[in-house]
């Protein structure tokens, strides 16, 4: 079936550097994308979302980029901090889905070195 | 303030002994979801309620059932837990309609003895 996947299972960055987490999706009908952060022992926490009519959306220290041509999504974290260490999931949905169901990617673990 | 609350945080049950996990929300969202998440894996949707309408995923085992007595509460019943059902169970909520993010609770970790 359709799937959302990630290129890198683990990303290690130095504190203060910028982080980029990538995600590839295969469902061409997907038009809503969302990033979640999951810390150990906690549920996924909403970070930022983007609809397919946009290429870029910015939040506080985070930016999501969407390239529909190559079906690629990325999350950029500026000035990465130790508190950013977590597993990051991308997820996708589409407007035909009245229940707002999401398909999750496999996750990337971000490790921040002090 | 917690908006999606799952109880208990940790649950231990015996092989084959029915167990119920609970979820409550203060967001007044009309959609509630149950996910199963195993170690180092993405959450896997089991089923969801859109208002009172129950929607089961095709590959969710019959062993898993759900109840939603009102807008605020939703329960996950596992009728005869097997060792393979040990996992984190996550509840989430969202508004109905396109492009609404799901909001997750912190999960219940289920162990099977």
Question: Can you characterise this structure?
Answer:
- The complex is a heterodimer of chains A (114) and B (113).
- Chain A is an all-beta fold.
- Chain A has strands spanning 4-5, 10-14, 19-25, 32-38, 45-51, 56-58, 62-67, 72-77, 86-93, 103-104, 108-113.
- In chain A, a hairpin with a 6-residue loop joins strand 4 (32-38) and strand 5.
- The mean pLDDT of chain A is 90.
- Chain B is an all-beta fold and 113 residues long.
- Chain B is 0% helix and 51% strand.
- Chain B contains no helices and 11 strands.
- Chain B has strands at 4-7, 10-13, 19-25, 31-37, 44-50, 53-56, 64-67, 73-78, 87-94, 103-104, 108-112.
- The relative contact order of chain B is 0.34.
- The chains are: A mainly beta (114), B mainly beta (113).
- At the A-B interface, strand 4 and strand 5 of A face strand 5, strand 9 and strand 10 of B.
List the SSEs and their pairings.
The complex is a heterodimer of chains A (114) and B (113).
Chain A: E1 4-5, E2 10-14, E3 19-25, E4 32-38, E5 45-51, E6 56-58, E7 62-67, E8 72-77, E9 86-93, E10 103-104, E11 108-113
Parallel strand pairs in A: 2-11
Antiparallel strand pairs in A: 1-3, 3-8, 4-5, 4-9, 6-7, 7-8, 9-10, 9-11
Chain B: E1 4-7, E2 10-13, E3 19-25, E4 31-37, E5 44-50, E6 53-56, E7 64-67, E8 73-78, E9 87-94, E10 103-104, E11 108-112
Parallel strand pairs in B: 2-11
Antiparallel strand pairs in B: 1-3, 3-8, 4-5, 4-9, 5-6, 7-8, 9-10, 9-11
**Low-pLDDT regions of chain B:** none
Distance between the termini of chain A: 40 Å
Q: In percent, how much strand structure appears in the residues of chain A? A: over 45%
Please give the number of β-strands of chain B. Answer: 11
Structural class by secondary-structure content of chain A: mainly beta
Mean pLDDT of chain A: 90
Low-confidence stretches of chain A: none
Task: Using the alpha-carbon principal axes, give the shape of chain B.
Answer: globular
The major pleated sheet of chain B works out as: 7 strands, mixed
Number of helices of chain A: 0
Global Rg of chain B = 13 Å
Tell me the helix content of chain B: under 10%
The succession of helices and strands of chain A, N to C, reads: EEEEEEEEEEE
- Radius of gyration of chain A over alpha carbons? 14 Å
Oligomer category: heterodimer
Derived structural class of chain B:
mainly beta
The whole-number mean of residue pLDDT values of chain B reads 94
Q: What's the N-to-C terminus distance of chain B? A: 33 Å
